[in-house]
Amino acid sequence: MTAAPGMRDLAHRLLVYEADAGKASEQLESATLRVYEKLRHCLGEFVGVAGFQSLASRALTLSRPEVPSLSAARVAADGSLEGLGDIETQFDMGKPSAADGEIILIARLLGLLRLFLGEALTLSLLRSTWPGEAFEDRNSLHGRKV
Amino acid sequence: MNTQDKVKINKLPTGVPGLDEIVGGGLPEFSFNIIAGAPGSGKTTLAHQFVFANATPERPALYFTVLGESAIKMLRYQQQYTFFDPAMLPGSIRFINLSQVVLEKDLGAVLEEITKEVEKDNPAVVVVDSFRTMVRKPQSDMDLQSFIQRLALFLASWQATTFLIGEYAEDELRDNPIFTVADGLFWLRQTAERNSIVRKLQVIKLRGQDSVPGLHTFRITEAGVQAFARTFGLTARKRNPPSDRRLSFGIAELDKMLGGGVREGDSVLVAGSSGTGKSVLATQFIAEGIRQGEPGIVAVFEERPQAYAERASSLGLDLETPQKDGKLTILYLRPLDLSVDETMHSILDAVQKIGAKRLVIDSLAGFEMALSPGFRADFRESLYRMIFALTGIGVTILSTVEVDESFTEFTFSTYSVSFLTDDIIRLRYVSIDGQLRKIMVVIKMRGGNHAKDIREYEITSKGVVILGKRLANYQGLISGIPVHSDRPDQTQEPSLDTGIEHTT
C-alpha cells in the first residue's frame, strides 16, 4: 500500500513551499525537517508529545516499505525525527523523483491525520501553520488542487 | 438597590437545544462550571456544543485535554455531530494537550501552563477535560483547594467562562472543594431501565439566576445533546385565559350532549373498551377542527400515520389533503424508549409549526407503552405537566383510553387519570334485546352543563352516529346488563344537568 496521491500532492506542496522559504532565509535545515517540525509543533499542541510521537512512528513504519533508506530513521521520545541520513538530501523541486522518500514520510503523516480527523479538519489545522500560498498548485506531482 | 444599580450578568447560549430554558435563559458569563457524570454520559459533547456556540476568532475557546481520551480521537468522534464546524479549528477553538505537564510536574506547573495560554489567547471559553485526571495525583487538601481557588479566580478575572469536566460520583458532592468553588454544577446521569437507557440532567447549582429544578431528560443524537426541560419550554409563555368558545365534534347530537361542544382549551378523555369507537370519535374531532380551519395534531402510538389516515378515509374523512396543506400532522412517536418530555417536545414543535388548536393522543395506553420503563412510574405526573402546559396555550386535547369492560363496574380509566381531564365521555357495550349495542354518556364537563342522557350510537361508514332519543326504557344501562322498564317512554330532547360534577 502506497501513500495516497492526494496526500503526496499536499506533502509535495508543503515541501516546495519550505524549500523556497529555506532558500530565501538561507536556512541550513532541510525542507523535510522544517515541514516535519512544523507539524510536530502544530499537532503536538493538541495531541501532546506522546500523541505526536505515536503518529510519527506509525507514519515512519508505513513509509519504510516504499523508502527502504528510511530504515535508519527513528522518532525520538519527544517526537523529533532522527537519523534521516541519506534520505535527508536537500529537496529539489526540479527533481521530484529524488525527493520521493521525503514526500512519502510527510504524506504518510498527513494521511494518518486525514484518516483520523477527516480532510476538512486536517486542512484547517495545516492552514493555521502554513499560509495559503503553501497550498497553491505551483508544482504538484499530479496538478490537483487542495 | 434598584434594578439599574445591579450588575447585569450576560447569558451565553449553551448551544444545547433545551438547555437554555433549563438554566434560565443561558449560562452566566464568566461563570466557573463543573460538568460531572459517569463515563459516556455526554459531558464532553455538552462542553463541545458550548464551545462551538460561543467561540470566535477574537475571543476563542481553549480546550485543555489532559489524560484520558486523546484529542485526536475526541475530534474524530466529535466531528460526527452536526454542530461541529472544522473551519473553527484552530482559529476559534484551540485544543491544548496538558498530559506531559500533568504527568511530570505539579499543580503549580499546570496552573502556570494554563495561565500562559490564557494570557496569550484571551479566550472567552476555557474547558479542562478531564479535570479529574488533572488532579489525579495525591494532593493535600490545601494544595488542591488552593489550586482550584487560584484557577477559578484567574479564569474569572480573565473574563473566561469555564467548564471543568469530571467523572465524579454523587457521594463526592459534600467533600470535594471543587463543588464549593463552582458557580454552576451540571450533573449528567445515565441509567439502564430494563432494556432502555434513560439519560437525565440536573442543574444542582447555578449562581446568579434561577434554573428549572429537577431532573430533565436528555438524549444524544447526531445533533449532540438535546435537553427536554420539565417545563416544556413554556415558562416564558403566559397561560391563555379560559375560553367560552365551544369546539364541535362534527356530530350534532354529541355537541348537544356536551352543551354545545367541548370548551376550547379543555382536556377531554374518551374512555371505552376495545372496539367502542374511541379512535373514530377522535378522528371525527380532529377532522371537524380542520373543516373549521383549526389545525390539528394526532399523536399515534399504536399504528403508523398512513394506516391512521387510511382508516379515516374509510369513514369518509380525508386526512391526506390537510397533511399536505400543513393543517394536520400525524405524529408517530418512536416506541419503547421515549420520555414524556421528548414526546412533548415533538408535539410542541408540531403545534408551533402548524398553529395547532386541537390535539388527539390516541391512546394513553399506547403512550405509556412507548415510554421507557423508567418513565412509566411517573406517567401520571408527566401527563399532568403535559396537559397543563398544552391546555395553557389554548390547545384542546382529546385523549383516548381503553378501559376493561366490566358488567358490574363503570370505570372511567384504568390509569386513574380522569382527574387530569376537564371532560369525560364514556363509551361502553351494553346487552339489549339479545344484541351487543353501544351506549355513550357524558360523565363530566368542568365548568359547563352537559346532558345526563345515555344515548345509543353506532359506528357506520360515516363514523359515530348517535341514534334516536335517550334510552329511557331501561334501567341499569351503565352496568352493561340493563333491565327493561315498563314505564312509559319519557324520551325528550337531551336534557342538560345543572353543572353537578360526577365523582370520577
Detailed description of the structure:
The complex is a heterodimer of chains A (146) and B (504). Chain A has helices spanning 5-25, 31-63, 100-117, 119-127; strands at residues 74-75, 81-82. With 146 residues, chain A is mainly alpha-helical. Chain A has one domain. Chain A has a two-stranded antiparallel ribbon. In chain A, strand 1 (74-75) and strand 2 (81-82) form a beta hairpin. The radius of gyration of chain A is 14 Å and the shape is globular. The model of chain A is unreliable at 93-98 and 139-146 (pLDDT under 50). Chain B has 504 residues and is of the alpha/beta class. Chain B folds into 2 domains: 7-228, P-loop containing nucleotide triphosphate hydrolases (Rossmann fold, 3-Layer(aba) Sandwich), CATH 3.40.50.300; 246-484, 3-Layer(aba) Sandwich (Rossmann fold). Helices cover 29% and strands 26% of the residues of chain B. Chain B has 16 helices and 24 strands. In chain B, the strands form 5 sheets. A 9-stranded mixed beta sheet of chain B has the order 5-4-6-7-3-8-9-10-11, sandwiched between helices. Chain B has a 9-stranded mixed beta sheet with strand order 16-15-17-18-14-19-20-21-22, sandwiched between helices. A two-stranded antiparallel sheet of chain B has the order 1-2. In chain B, a hairpin with a 2-residue loop joins strand 19 and strand 20.
What labels describe this entry?
heterodimer; A: mainly alpha; two-stranded antiparallel sheet; disordered C terminus; B: 504 residues; alpha/beta; Rossmann fold; nine-stranded mixed sheet; 16 helices; 24 strands; elongated
Task: Give a quick rundown of the structure.
The complex is a heterodimer of chains A (146) and B (504). In chain A, 55% of the residues lie in helices and 3% in strands.
